[in-house]
Write a structure and sequence with these properties.
Chain B: It holds the Pfam family Peripla_BP_6. The structure holds three protein chains of three kinds. By secondary structure, chain B is α/β, with parallel strands linked by helices. Chain B is built from 13 helices and 14 strands. The termini of chain B are far apart. In chain C, helix 4 packs antiparallel against helix 9. Chain C is globular. Classes of the chains: A mainly alpha, B alpha/beta, C mainly alpha.
Chain lengths: 304, 387, 327
C-alpha cells in the first residue's frame, strides 16, 4: 500500500513538472496559434542560467531569480524577433523557424558552457526525506516540486478566471478576432503570454536542475511529452493541460512500475521485462492516440 | 539548372577551401560526435588523441588530423568517411564513439582497404564473425565492461542483486554481461527507457525488493539523473551500488558530486594509475585542459600511441598495408593502462580493476583504484573470428 | 506559352547534369559528390512523398519517418534472414534481390500507412500532426527494443541488394539505380498530381465542404493519398538501407520526420521538384557546414530562420524571384 502511494506521488510529481511546461505551450498554441518547438530550449535556458548562478554563488536560492529572469528574457526576445513574424503564418513555417531556434540555442549553450553537464547541489533545507506516513519516506525536494507546481496551477487559475488579462486570454483562446475587435493591444497581450509561458518553462528547468542532468538537448527530450499533454488536454485549455499532465504522469509512472510485474505473471521473466518496457515507452503515445480517436479535439474541449 | 549549378559551385568551393595539406604528412581521419548531449565524449576523444601528437608528429612521422562531427547520425558518419576516403585519400581512421555510427561506417572503411582503430565503440556485431583484419579496437569489447562489474559484485560478496538498464541493445548486453559473472541471485530486473527523466517508479521497486546490491547501466546524462535521484531517495546509504565505467566517468562524477560517494565501479583505466605513461598523460591533460579527465580521453590517447607505434615501425609508409597491419598488431607501445595486447579478433586483452568513489584530499569526491577484478581478460567473440 | 516550353528544357538540362554528375565529380577530384548526390536523390523521393500529402493535400504528417524506417527495415530484415539462411517466421525466406525487396518494402509501408492513416485522418489540424507523431514514436520504440534485429545498434547489411547484370558494389551503379528510380518516381508523381485524383486532393485542401457538396468521399480520398505517400517514403527508406548498407531505429526517430518536413518547406511546399531541391540544400548545407566548423548547427539554424522569415515559399521561390528580377 505504501508502495502504491509512493508511486502515486511519483506520478503526481512528474505530472506537475509536465504541467509547468505544458501550461505555457498550450497558451501559446491556443491564443496565438503558434507551434513553438523552441519551448524546450527555454526550459534548457532556465536550467542552465539558474544552475550556473547557483553553482557560481554557492547559493541555490539565488539561482531561482536568475533562471526565471533568463528564461523570461529569452522568451520575450524570441517573441519579439521571430515569433511575432509568424502569427497567422502556416504551421509549417512555425515548425521550421522554431526548429532553427532549437539548433541555434543548443549550439550557443555548448559554446557558452561547454559540453559537460552542469552540477548544482541541493540546499540543506530540501535535502533528505520525510516520513509522510508510517513506512512511507519521500524526498523533500520532490514534495517541494509538487507544492510549487500546485501553487502555480492555483495562481494561473486565479489569473485567468479573476483578472482582466485572464479574461482577454480566455477570449483570445476561443475567438482571436473578437479580442482584436475590442481594441485591445493584441501585440502586448501576445508578448505577455509568451513571456509568462517562458517564465514557467524556466521555473520547470531550474527545478529539474538538481534531479536531472543539466545538459544540451534536455529540452527536446521533454518537449514531445509536453506536446502530448497539450493535445490530450485540448489545445488552449489550461485546465485541460493540468488534468492531462496529472493523468499522463500517473499513467506513465504506473505503467513503468506495474506493467512488467503483470506481464511476468503470464510469460517468462526477461521477455516480460523487455516487452513491458517497450509497451510502457509507447504508453503515452498509445494513450494520446486513443484519446484523439474518441475525442478528436482533446479531453477538455467540447466538440463542436 | 541554375540552382543545380549554384549548388554544385557552392559545394565545390566549400571543399576547395579545405586547407591545403603538406605533402609528406600522413593523414588521419577522425569521425566523432561533437554535438548534442553526448558531445563531451567526442570532445575528449579528440583532445585525448591530440595530446599524444608531439609537435604534430606520431612516432616521429608528421601527421595531419582531420576531425569531423557525425552528429550521432549513422548516415552522416558514412558520408564523412566517404569523403575522407575518396577525396582526401585518407588511409587511417579513428574517432567513432557510438556503436550505431560504427555499424554504418566501419564496414565501408575497412572494405576499401583503409584502417580503423576504435577509441571507444566495440559492438559485438563487429567483434565475432564480421571481424576484419583492418579493424582494431583499443578500448574494450562492450561486454567486458559489464562482465567485470558482475565479477566485482561477486568478489564483494553480494548475494542478491537488482539490475537496471535502458531497453536497448547496449542495455540488454549490459545486463546479460553482468549476469554472466555474477554468482548470486537476481532480485529484480528492470528495463528503463532511453527518454526517461524520472526514475522514482523504479527506485520505489528497488527499495521494495531489498537487494544487497544494485547494478545499473545508464551512460551519460541518464546516469547522472539516475544517480542523483538514487541518492535523493536515500538509497545510497541503504543499498550499495556497483556500476561499469560508462555510468561513472570523470564528467559524470563532477555533475553528480557527493551523491556518488561509496559507489563501486570497474574500469580498465583510472587517472591514478601508477605508471610512467599514465603520469605523462595526466600531466599533459591537466596542463592543456581545465576540465575533468575521462577514460574516453585515455582511450583516444592510447589509440594515438598505437598508430604512433605502427607509423614508427614502418617509417610512415602506410602504402604497404600488410607491414603496417603487422606493426599495429604488435601493440608495441606504453599504454596508460600498463599492460595491453590485442586478442585474435584484434580487440584488447587487458586487466580490469575495482574502483571506488571516495572523498578526496580537497574534499571533492574522487575515483580511487582499490583492487583488481580480471587479469588478461579478452572477450567471448574472439572464438568466432576467423582472420 | 513561354513557360510551357521553358520547363521541359529545364528538366532535360537537370537530368543531363545529374547523369553527368559522377563523371564530372570524379574528373574534378570530388569523388564523394556522387554519394552525396545519391543521398539527395533518396531524401528527395522521401520529401516529395511527404509533400504529396503535406503540400498538395494539406495533411501535415509529423510521422513520415515511420514509413521511411519500415522501408529500410524491410530490406535489412530480409537480408538478415537471407544471410543466416533462416526463414522469417519459419516460412518466409529472406532475400537479397532488389527486384523483390523494393516492392515488398513499398507494399509493407503502404499497409502501415493504411493503418496509421485510417486512424489519424479522423482528426485534423494540430491533432493530426501529433497523432501521426505518436504512431511514428510507437514504431521507433518497438524497433529500439527488437533485440533480434539489432535494437538500437541497428542492422548491418554487409552487401547491398543485387540487381541482375549490375555490380551493386560500385558506387556509380548505386547512384544510377537511384537516379533511374527517382526519375520514374517523379514521373509517376507528376502524372498523379495532374490527374483528376490529384485535383481532388488539392480541392480537399482548399475546401473540404465544397468537395463534400459535389459528393466526393473526402476521407477515402485523403486515405488513398496518405497510403501513396507512405509507399513513396518506404521506397526511399529501402533505397537508403541499400545505400548505407545499414538500417537503424534512427531512421524513424521524430527528428527524421522533422528533417523531411524541413526539406519540403525549404524547397517549397506544394511544388513537384521543390522537395528535391530542399533535400539538396539541406544535405549540402549540413555536410558543408560540418566540414567547416564544429559549430555547424548554429549556421544551419540561422539559415533556416532566414529562409522562413525572409523568403515566401522556400528556396525555389527565392530562386525564381531572383531569376525573374534579373531577366
Amino acid at each position: 500500500m505504501t508502495l502504491f502511494l509512493e508511486q502515486l506521488l511519483n506520478g503526481v510529481q512528474f505530472g506537475v513538472m509536465l504541467f509547468l511546461l505544458a501550461a505555457g505551450l498550450t497558451l501559446i498554441f491556443g491564443i496565438m496559434g503558434v507551434i513553438n518547438l523552441a519551448h524546450g530550449s527555454i526550459y534548457m535556458i532556465g536550467a542552465y542560467a539558474g544552475t550556473w548562478v547557483a553553482a557560481e554563488t554557492g547559493s541555490f536560492w539565488l539561482g531561482i531569480p536568475a533562471g526565471l529572469a533568463a528564461a523570461a528574457f529569452a522568451g520575450v526576445v524570441i517573441e519579439f524577433l521571430v515569433v511575432r513574424r509568424l502569427y497567422g503564418r502556416d504551421h509549417l513555417d512555425q515548425v521550421l523557424a522554431t526548429f532553427g531556434l532549437i539548433l541555434i540555442f543548443n549550439q550557443a549553450i555548448t559554446m557558452l558552457f561547454g559540453r559537460q553537464p552542469l552540477f548544482v547541489s541541493m540546499p540543506a533545507l530540501l535535502d533528505g526525506s520525510v516520513e509522510l506516513l508510517p513506512g512511507l519516506f519521500y524526498p523533500v525536494y520532490r514534495l517541494a516540486i509538487i507544492v510549487v507546481g500546485l501553487l502555480v496551477a492555483l495562481g494561473l487559475y486565479l489569473l485567468i478566471n479573476k483578472t482582466r488579462v485572464g479574461m482577454l486570454v480566455r477570449a483570445g483562446s476561443t475567438n482571436r478576432e473578437m479580442v482584436r475587435a475590442l481594441g485591445v493591444d493584441v501585440r502586448l497581450l501576445y508578448t505577455l503570454v509568451f513571456g509568462l509561458g517562458a517564465l514557467l518553462a524556466g521555473l520547470a528547468g531550474f527545478m529539474a536542475g538538481p534531479i536531472l542532468a543539466v545538459q544540451v538537448g534536455m529540452g527536446e527530450q521533454i518537449l514531445i511529452t509536453t506536446f502530448v499533454v497539450v493535445v490530450i488536454g485540448g489545445v488552449g485549455s489550461i485546465r485541460g493541460a493540468f488534468f492531462a499532465s496529472l493523468i499522463l504522469g500517473i499513467v506513465d509512472t504506473s505503467l513503468r512500475a506495474y506493467l512488467p510485474g503483470l506481464l511476468r505473471q503470464i510469460m517468462v521473466g526477461p521477455e516480460a521485462d523487455a516487452l513491458g518496457a517497450g509497451i510502457s515507452s509507447m504508453g503515452i503515445y498509445l494513450l494520446m492516440a486513443i484519446v484523439l480517436l474518441i475525442r478528436p479535439k482533446g479531453l477538455f474541449i467540447r466538440n463542436s | 539548372m541554375i540552382l543545380k549549378k549554384a549548388l554544385l559551385a557552392i559545394s565545390v568551393s566549400a571543399f576547395a577551401v579545405l586547407p591545403a595539406l603538406a605533402q609528406d604528412a600522413v593523414k588521419i581521419g577522425m569521425i566523432t560526435t561533437l554535438t548534442g548531449p553526448a558531445g563531451y565524449l567526442g570532445q575528449d576523444v579528440r583532445d585525448g588523441f591530440k595530446l599524444a601528437m608531439e609537435d604534430g608528429k606520431l612516432g616521429g612521422v608528421p601527421v595531419d588530423l582531420l576531425v569531423e562531427d557525425d552528429g550521432l547520425k549513422p548516415g552522416q558518419g558514412k558520408q564523412i568517411a566517404e569523403r575522407f576516403l575518396n577525396e582526401d585519400k585518407i588511409k587511417l581512421f579513428t574517432g567513432i564513439v557510438f556503436s550505431n555510427v560504427a555499424g554504418a561506417t566501419v564496414p565501408d572503411i575497412v572494405d576499401s582497404g583503409a584502417f580503423y582503430v576504435s577509441p571507444n565503440a566495440g559492438p559485438s556485431n563487429l567483434a565475432g564473425k564480421e571481424c576484419n583484419e583492418n579493424y582494431f579496437v583499443v578500448s574494450w569489447q562492450n561486454d567486458s565492461l559489464h562482465e567485470s562489474a558482475g565479477q566485482l559484485a561477486t568478489n564483494l560478496g553480494y548475494k542478491k542483486a537488482f539490475i537496471l538498464a535502458p531497453n536497448y541493445q547496449a542495455g540488454k548486453d549490459a545486463l546479460a554481461g553482468f549476469k554472466r559473472y555474477f554468482k548470486g541471485e537476481i532480485a529484480g530486473e528492470i528495463y528503463t527507457r532511453l527518454d526517461q527523466t524520472d526514475f522514482a517508479a523504479e527506485l520505489a521497486q528497488v527499495r521494495a525488493a531489498k537487494p544487497d546490491v544494485v547494478f545499473q547501466f545508464h551512460p551519460g546524462g541518464l546516469g547522472i539523473t539516475f544517480l542523483r535521484q538514487y541518492e535523493q531517495a536515500g538509497l545510497m546509504k541503504e543499498i550499495p551500488m556497483v556500476v561499469a565505467e560508462p555510468s561513472m566517468d570523470g564528467v559524470t562524477l563532477a555533475a553528480v558530486g557527493d551523491a556518488a560517494l561509496g559507489l563501486n565501479l570497474t574500469s580498465h583505466w583510472n587517472s591514478d594509475f601508477d605508471n610512467a605513461a599514465n603520469k605523462k598523460f595526466m600531466d599533459a591533460w591537466n596542463k592543456a585542459y581545465n576540465r575533468p579527465v575521462t577514460y574516453y580521453a585515455a582511450q583516444a590517447y592510447d589509440t594515438a600511441l598505437a598508430y604512433a607505434s605502427a607509423l614508427k615501425a614502418t617509417d610512415g609508409n602506410i602504402d604497404d598495408a600488410d607491414a603496417f597491419r603487422a606493426a599495429l598488431r604488435k601493440a608495441d607501445f606504453e599504454s596508460v593502462r600498463g599492460k595491453f595486447s590485442f586478442g585474435p579478433n584484434q580487440h584488447p586483452v587487458q586487466d580490469w580493476y575495482a574502483l571506488k568513489v571516495e572523498k578526496g584530499p580537497e574534499g571533492k569526491p574522487i575515483i580511487k583504484t582499490v583492487g583488481e577484478v580480471f587479469k588478461d581478460h579478452g572477450d567471448a567473440y574472439a572464438a568466432e573470428c576467423k582472420m | 506559352m513561354e513557360k510551357s516550353l521553358k520547363r521541359p528544357a529545364l528538366l532535360a538540362a537537370l537530368l543531363i547534369a545529374l547523369i553527368a554528375l559522377p563523371t564530372v565529380a570524379d574528373a574534378a577530384g570530388f569523388a564523394a559528390l556522387t554519394s552525396l548526390a545519391t543521398r539527395v536523390l533518396i531524401y528527395g523521393i522521401a520529401a516529395a512523398s511527404l509533400n504529396f500529402v503535406l503540400g498538395y493535400g494539406g495533411m501535415v504528417s509529423f510521422g513520415h519517418a515511420a514509413f521511411f524506417g519500415i522501408g529500410g527495415y524491410t530490406v535489412g530484415i530480409l537480408y538478415q534472414h537471407y544471410s543466416l539462411g533462416e526463414p522469417l517466421f519459419g516460412f518466409i525466406p529472406g532475400t537479397n534481390q532488389m527486384l523483390i525487396t523494393l516492392p515488398v518494402a513499398v507494399v509493407l509501408s503502404g499497409i502501415m500507412a493504411a493503418i496509421i492513416g485510417a486512424l489519424s485522418l479522423r482528426t485534423g489540424g494540430v491533432q493530426f500532426i501529433m497523432i501521426t507523431l505518436a504512431f511514428a514514436q510507437m514504431l521507433f520504440f518497438l524497433f529500439v527494443s527488437l533485440k533480434t534485429y539489432g535494437g538500437d545498434d541497428g542492422l548491418i547489411i554487409r552487401r547491398a541488394n543485387e540487381l541482375p547484370w549490375l555490380n551493386m558494389r560500385d558506387k556509380h551503379t548505386v547512384y544510377y539505380v537511384c537516379l533511374a528510380i527517382a526519375v520514374l518516381f517523379f514521373a509517376v508523381l507528376w502524372r498523379l498530381v495532374n490527374s483528376r485524383f490529384g485535383n481532388v486532393i488539392v480541392g480537399l485542401r482548399q475546401s473540404e465542404k465544397r468537395m463534400a457538396a459535389i459528393g466526393l468521399p473526402a476521407y477515402r480520398y485523403k486515405l488513398v493519398a496518405f497510403i501513396i505517400s507512405g509507399m513513396g517514403c518506404g521506397l526511399a527508406g529501402a533505397l537508403m538501407a541499400n545505400f548505407l548498407r545499414f538500417a537503424s531505429p534512427d531512421m524513424m526517430h521524430w527528428t527524421k520526420s522533422g528533417e523531411l518536413m524541413i526539406m519540403v518547406i525549404l524547397g517549397g511546399v506544394g511544388t513537384l521538384f521543390g522537395p528535391l531541391i530542399g533535400a539538396a540544400v539541406f544535405i549540402v548545407l549540413e555536410s558543408v557546414l560540418a566540414s567547416w566548423t564544429e559549430n555547424w548547427q548554429l549556421g544551419l539554424g540561422l539559415i533556416l530562420l532566414f529562409v522562413v522569415l525572409y523568403t515566401q515559399g522556400g528556396v525555389q521561390a527565392l530562386g525564381a524571384r531572383l531569376v525573374g528580377r534579373s531577366a
